[in-house]
Design a protein that fits this description.
It is a single chain. With about 240 residues, the chain is an alpha/beta fold. The protein has a single domain, classed as Rossmann fold. The protein has eleven helices and six strands. A six-stranded parallel sheet has the order 3-2-1-4-5-6, sandwiched between helices. Helix 2 links the parallel strand 1 and strand 2. Helix 3 packs antiparallel against helix 11. It is globular. About 40% of the residues are buried. Bound molecules: adenosine-5'-triphosphate. The site of adenosine-5'-triphosphate has 17 residues, from helix 2, strand 4, helix 6 and helix 10.
């Protein structure tokens, strides 16, 4: 059975949302910190939103941006249009302090490469800390991403543990993890990019795939995603079998 590298295991043990720098408040320093959660969000659900909120609060993020992709490079095209996925995200974050939706991938032509997104954020935001939230399921194959070696130059990674997925033990991603893994959240502000934190928050086994299939079967998706998003899905007739 694969086991996590020692550094990653130590980080995973330490970094629960209850760990804070100052014994009650969350980690703080002068440099602004923007956390990013990219995805297809087809549709956005409480697995995404709960993770985003826990990270936002524990890191005392200045902003939490949800970044819907236009054309995902590693998977089939989403079922809902870009406009619909954007609207579902807007409904989901309405009134949530600190949460915003970043439309840059939707506005850009071509495949939605994360390296382009981070480079453009870096240009826009300057020397802030950028912290990319990514599921362990996606992180293990980071070396298949376009120009993946540039990614740690542009952002930190906050890798969210997912049920049944262990950190890589061998190969280029395992080496990157061993070199850059930290369990000190202060590093995410004292440096603007390049660190990796393994994050173990509340694990909700919710997937957009399961929600699409629930809706397609005519079953009720309540309590898996916000009611406003369910109302939008029903209004637009999304995900139903035709
Ligand atoms: P699908 O089922 O269509 O593949 P998904 O539910 O995995 O979709 P995505 O939009 O592809 O959602 O995921 C965006 C990001 O959110 C990825 O980094 C993914 O690892 C993470 N993520 C997805 N579901 C959860 C969840 N339940 N808890 C925490 N993170 C999640």
């Amino acid at each position: 059975m694969l086991t996590a590298p020692r550094e990653a295991q130590a980080a995973a043990r330490t970094l629960t949302p209850s760990v804070h720098e100052d014994g009650g408040g969350a980690c703080r320093s002068n440099r602004a910190l923007i956390a990013l959660l990219g995805g297809t969000f087809d549709p956005v659900h409480f697995g995404h939103l709960r993770t985003a909120l826990e990270v936002h609060d524990a890191l005392a993020c200045d902003e939490l941006r949800l970044v819907p992709c236009s054309r995902p490079p590693h998977r089939e095209m989403p079922v809902a249009s870009a406009r619909q996925r954007l609207e579902m995200l807007r409904l989901a974050v309405a009134g949530v302090p600190g949460f915003t939706v970043d439309e840059r991938e939707i506005r850009r032509d071509g495949p939605s490469y994360m390296v382009d997104t981070l480079a453009s954020l870096r240009t826009d935001c300057g020397d802030v800390s950028l912290c990319l939230i990514i599921g362990m399921d996606a992180f293990v194959s980071l070396d298949t991403w376009h120009e993946w070696r540039r990614l740690p130059e542009l952002a930190h990674f906050l890798v969210v543990e997912r049920p049944g997925v262990v950190p890589p033990e061998k190969g280029a991603v395992a080496t990157l993890l061993a070199e850059r893994c930290t369990n000190d959240l202060k590093n995410l502000r004292s440096e603007s990019a390049g660190r990796i934190v393994i994050w173990s928050g509340t694990q909700l086994e919710i997937s957009a795939t399961a929600i699409r299939s629930i809706v397609a079967d005519g079953r009720n998706p309540s309590f898996l995603l916000p009611n406003e998003v369910i109302r939008f899905i029903n209004k637009e007739g999304l995900y139903i079998k035709r």
